[in-house]
Amino acid sequence: MLCQQCQQRPASVHVTQIINNEKREMHLCEQCANQQQQMVNFISPFSINDFLTAFLGNNYMYSSSLKPQGKPSVCEMPVCNQCGMTYERFSKIGKLGCQNCYHVFHNILDQVLRKIHGNVFHKGKLPNRTGGDIKIKKEIEQLKSKLNQAIQAEEYEKAAVLRDQIRQLEGTMKGE
What we know:
Layout: E1 13-19, E2 22-28, H1 30-39, H2 48-56, H3 87-93, H4 101-104, H5 106-117, H6 128-152, H7 156-174
Antiparallel strand pairs: 1-2
């Protein structure tokens, strides 16, 4: 698809505006999109930064066994020793300054991820129709690894239980 404005370059930016229940779509190349952005300020009402800062807000609870829960004083807030990022600045822009910030703001990020996802570990997402087999295969691989460890440690009773579990899972995969 060619750019709707210049009709010369391929359209790589697709803008959809809905104003007064009227939908307007524009397909532009990068150069024309930059020109449009300078003439008409495309302001997105939602950004990932705004989304994250909404979770940071005043709800930050500094979690440490030695410090009381509640909003920390300015001197207690972590500051990145590499880029100088402060919690206050991070909460305003919603972006970290460098890779070290992930370590410095670890407690804060854990709390935000728990609020958003309910967990701090990514478990992935698999389609239901194929996810079952893949999950079983991964579980079998883990059990085989544990089986090898048990054999190495000469824990033969444990190895026998693991072997039976592997056989049972392989049977469910075959439809037995």
